[in-house]
Write a structure and sequence with these properties.
single chain, alpha/beta, 9 strands, globular
Length: 241
């Protein structure tokens, strides 16, 4: 019953759709929609989180393959990987996939979630280095909170920083200064900056003014199933043409 929905990621200055975050969804036949935070927590408690990580990765790669020779071939997908699930089997799968799909690292981003404490775990750090060496883009989620901070960039092989929504909305203290600092730092370090949780035109104007490159949020669209996502992208392209 696990499926994947896709929330568009947009190049802010042009409005061009460049990617999407792949988000797990569970529509249970008896109890209806089960929120991701609930079933992921269940998976972690029952030691099924690695199985879930593999299953979702399979679905995301399947979608990229389906788009390969279509007008959506230039869209990248971000796959969420908990720092606690950076398992050797995931690294092996990512390596083996390249043999079949050598173009995959250009289209599949690995988005690190729950990165707290990972800097003190040598094995996980080495596996992230292995993933980066394979050519995959590594993104760090919730940047600006907890361990997902500037310090993490010095220790992790990151190519993209995903700015936490509390800075995008302006609710956090000194959020404008933080946005400006992240944008400048990312530019100097040749990293991509992406803002999540854009909900209003005011949010969008703030982050564009501070130089953030990419964004996603309900201002553009919620997470959509693949067919609806394709229709949304086509409509967006029609308005840009």
């Amino acid at each position: 019953h696990i499926t994947v929905a896709y929330q568009p990621q947009v190049e802010l200055k042009t409005g061009r759709v460049v990617g999407a975050e792949a988000l797990a969804r569970w529509q249970h036949p008896d109890i209806g929609n089960v929120p991701p935070n609930e079933f992921i927590r269940i998976a972690e408690r029952s030691d099924q989180i690695l199985w879930l990580s593999h299953s979702i990765l399979d679905l995301v790669v399947e979608q990229l393959v389906a788009w390969r020779d279509t007008p959506f071939a230039d869209i990248s997908l971000s796959y969420n990987l908990s720092a606690h699930s950076v398992d050797p089997s995931i690294v092996t799968k990512l390596r083996d996939l390249i043999a079949t799909y050598p173009w995959l690292p250009d289209r599949l981003k690995i988005e690190l979630t729950e990165s707290a404490d990972i800097m003190s775990h040598t094995n996980e750090l080495e596996r992230l280095e292995d993933i980066s060496d394979l050519g995959y883009c590594l993104s760090i989620d919730d940047f600006g909170t907890g361990y997902a901070s500037f310090e993490a960039i010095w220790h992790l092989p990151i190519q993209e920083v995903k700015i936490d929504r509390m800075y995008v909305s302006g609710k956090a203290k000194d959020s404008t200064s933080f946005l400006r600092a992240v944008s400048r730092f990312a530019s100097e370090q040749k990293l991509t900056s992406l803002a999540e949780g854009i909900e209003t035109k005011q949010d969008l104007e703030r982050i564009i003014a501070e130089g953030v490159e990419l964004g996603q949020g309900y201002y553009y669209a919620p997470a959509l199933d693949a067919t609806t996502f394709e229709a949304w992208v086509n409509d967006k392209r029609g308005h840009l043409a």
